[in-house]
Amino acid sequence: MTRQIKLGAFLPGGGQHIAAWRHPDQPADGATNFEFHKQLALTAERGLFDAYFLADGLAAAFSGGVEGGNAKVAGFEPVTLFSALTPLTTHLGFIATASTTYEEPYNTARKFASLDLISDGRAGWNVVTTATEAAARNFNLDQQLPHAARYRRAQEHVEVVKKLWDSFEDDAFLRDKDSGVFFDTAKVHGADHAGEHFKVAGPLNVSRSPQGHPVIVQAGQSEDGRGLAAATAEVIFTAHQHLDTAQEFYRDIKARAAANGRNPDHVLIMPGVSPFVGRTEEEAREKYDRLTSYILEEDGIALLNGLTGGTLDLTGHDLDGPLPPAPPTEGNKSRQALIRQIADENGFTIRQLYQWIASARGHFTIVGTAGQVADMLQEWFENEGADGFNILPPWLPTALDDFVDLVIPELQRRGLFRTAYEGRTLRENLGLPFPANRHAARHRVVEAAE
Amino acid sequence: MTRQIKLGAFLPGGGQHIAAWRHPDQPADGATNFEFHKQLALTAERGLFDAYFLADGLAAAFSGGVEGGNAKVAGFEPVTLFSALTPLTTHLGFIATASTTYEEPYNTARKFASLDLISDGRAGWNVVTTATEAAARNFNLDQQLPHAARYRRAQEHVEVVKKLWDSFEDDAFLRDKDSGVFFDTAKVHGADHAGEHFKVAGPLNVSRSPQGHPVIVQAGQSEDGRGLAAATAEVIFTAHQHLDTAQEFYRDIKARAAANGRNPDHVLIMPGVSPFVGRTEEEAREKYDRLTSYILEEDGIALLNGLTGGTLDLTGHDLDGPLPPAPPTEGNKSRQALIRQIADENGFTIRQLYQWIASARGHFTIVGTAGQVADMLQEWFENEGADGFNILPPWLPTALDDFVDLVIPELQRRGLFRTAYEGRTLRENLGLPFPANRHAARHRVVEAAE
C-alpha cells in the first residue's frame, strides 16, 4: 500500500493559541466544557484524523506555564476526558499525556489498559517527564528532579508498564462456564520487576487490551529524550522550524531505533504544525493578525518565561528590543533552545517572538492557503522530514474546521491521505504492528522446537 | 419533604456472587465488557438509583482476594469506566473507589473533579485504604503498612483533596473576552498543605466542579474506619447481619458526626443488601440454590481466606466441619470479624459459610419476595438502621432487573422511594448540601462585617 500521511490533532478545549479563548468563535469556557470537546472529537473523526491528542501538566500554569495562556489554567485530566469521548466516536484514536514522574506504573498501566478496552483499541499514551518546580511542589518535593534523573525514571516506568500490559496472554481467559475454569494459570504472569525506581510484582488487574499495548508516544528532543523515544516510542511528536532540522531528527531517530533492533518503519515521526488556513493568502493572514491582536503583553511575557524554563525575567526589558540571554534550565531543555533559535533566525524582538510562538510554542506555524499548507506537508512527508503531523489548530473550532474542510480534501486529491479509516484500532490506522505478548513468544518457541 | 430511601447499586460486570459468571444470564466476559456495563447503567437509571457504585483493588485477586471470584481478577479502573458511562446517562450518580494508600492527592483530586465536570455533577469518591500484601508488592513495598498508619494517611489524603477542590472559588472565572481577564486572581488559592504524609502547594489545575466537592463515601467499620467516616464521609457503606448492630453503628456514626460539628442528616448510612427476589418465596429460593450450585470448592475456600485477612489456611480441614480460628490481620479487620460472626451465629460449616457469603461477602443476604425485601428495607429505614441501602444484585443483569422491576415499584407504592429524580446532581438526589468553598466563606464573613 502507498505510504500516506498520519495525522494527530491537538485540540485543547481552551485553544492552542494563548489568546484563542478571546476569539469570538471559541467558547471562553472551552477548557472545562465537555460538549465542546465532544464537538471537536466528532469533527476530528469526520476529518479521518488518526488521533485526538492532549497535553497535560501537574500544576496550574499561572504565570508562564509551558502551555501558556490563562484559559488553560484549569482543564480536564486527559484520560478521564477521553474515556467519556470514546462511546461517542468509533474510529478516532485518543492519545493522552500522563506523567512518569509523579505517577506509579501500576496505576498508569491500569488506566491506559482500561481506556484501550473501553475504546476497543483506540488508546495511546504520550509518555512525559513532568518538569517545572510548580509540579514538584504538588508532589511532596521542594524542587524538581534533575533532567537526567527524570528520564531514567521515565524509561523504567515505561518498562514496568509494558511488563504489566503483558500480564495476561491473549488466550489466558477460557471462561468455561461448564468446568468453572475462568483462566489458564499458566498464561498469567507477574511483572517481577525490581529496579532503581520501582519494585512491582504484578500481575496487572486489567486484562490485556485490544491493541496488546496502547500506542506509546513520546516527544523528547534532548539527548535523553531521543534515547527514550528511540528505545520505546512508536509515535514521536517533535518541533521543527525547518525541513533540514526535521530531517536530521528523522534520520537520527530512525537510526537509533534500528540500532535498538527495532524496525524504523514502526517509529513514526510526527512534527507539530499550526496552520492558519484561508481561501486566499490574504484571508489566512487576516486570521493570523486577528488572533495576534488578542494577546495581552503580560500573557506573552509569561509564555516566554514558561517556555525558557521559568528562569527568564523580562521585567524592565523593552518588548520591542531583543531577547536577553537566559540561564540554563532543569526544565524542558529542547524547548528552551528552540525558542532561542526562532528569535535569532528571525531577528525577532521580544514582542514579535511571543506573537509568533503564541500559536504553537515552537512548532512550525504556517499562514496560507490549503494548497500551500498541503505543499509544506507533502514536502516534509516525501523528504524524510515526517511520517505524519500533529496539527495544532490555533483556535477552535474554526481552525480545525478549516483544516478538515480545506486541507484534508486537498491531501486526499493528492493521494496523500486516507478517504476512509483502514482499521478498527489506532494501531491499525497508524500501520503499527500488534505487539506480541513477551510470554506468548516464549510458548511459540517451545512449540516450534517440538 | 418526606424522608425517602436512597439507593446505590453495586454492579461489577463480573458479578457480585463469586460464581455469578457461570450463570447462563451473565456474560462470562462481563468484567471487561463495556457494552454490558452500559446496559447495567441504563437499567440502574431506569430504576432511579442514586448511584452506580464500584469497588476497586490494586492487585489481581487470584487466590483469596477480598472480592473473591476469578471473574473479577481483571476488570476496569473504575473512574475510567465511569467516565465513559456519563455521556450515556443523565441522572445516575457514579461512585468510584480510589485508594488513599497508593495514589497521590493531587492526582486523586484531578480525576474526581474531572469526572464531576464531565458528568455535570454526578461523581462520588469511595475513599479506601488499600489492604493486602499483594497490593503493597505492586507499589514498591514488601509488605503493607499497618492498619492505623493507613488510616492516618487516608485522613490526610482526604484533607488535601478537599483543599485542592477549593482552589478556585465558584465565581473565580470571569472569562471576559473584551478585557482579556480570564480569572480573578484573588479567588484562586493554594492548598498550602504540609503534613505528616503530604506536602502539596496547589492550586489544582481543574476548576471547582458542579458539586463543589464530589460526594465523599467511606466504608470503614473498625474504630479507625468509624473515625474517618464520621469526620469526612457523606455516605457510609456498611455491612450488618442484624438490625440491632446496624442501629448501634447508625447511632454511633451520627453521634460522632455531631461531635465533629457536622449535621448528622448529612451523613447517610447505607448498609449493603444482596437480594434474591422471586415472584414467590420458592422462586427466590430456587434462584439462590442455582447460583450456589455453581461455586467451586477451591473458590469458596479462596474467598474465605481473602475475607479473613489472607492468613487462614484451610488446607486439610473438613469443609463440612467448623471454621478454625484465624490469626489477627493487618488487613480488613472489620470484615474478618463479621465473617466469624456469621459462622458462629448460624453454626455454619466451612462449606455453608462460603456458600452464604458468596453473594455478598458479609453484607445482608435476603431470599424472598419483593414484599419481603421491601419489608426488611422499610424496617431498617424506619428504625435508625439505615438512610438507604447499597443493593448488591448477586448476578447480572437478571438480579438487577428483578430488583428494578419487582422491588422498586413496591417501595414506590409504599411512598418509600422516588418516582422521578429530584435533582440534577448526585448531591441533590441524595439530599446533601452543596459545600461552600472554604475561601468564599471567608469573603462572606468580611462582607458581613462591613
UniProtKB/TrEMBL annotation, chains A, B:
Top-level division of the source organism's lineage: Bacteria
Binding residues annotated for FMN, in chain numbering: 56, 97, 147, 151, 222
Keywords noted in UniProt: Flavoprotein, FMN, Monooxygenase, Oxidoreductase
Gene3D superfamilies recorded: Luciferase-like domain
Sections of the chain in a coiled coil: none
Signal peptide interval: none
CDD domains: Nitrilotriacetate_monoxgenase
Domain Luciferase-like: 20-387
GO molecular function term, any single one: oxidoreductase activity, acting on paired donors, with incorporation or reduction of molecular oxygen
SUPFAM superfamilies, per the entry: Bacterial luciferase-like
Family, as annotated: Belongs to the NtaA/SnaA/DszA monooxygenase family.
Name under which the protein is recorded: Coenzyme F420-dependent N5 N10-methylene tetrahydromethanopterin reductase-like protein
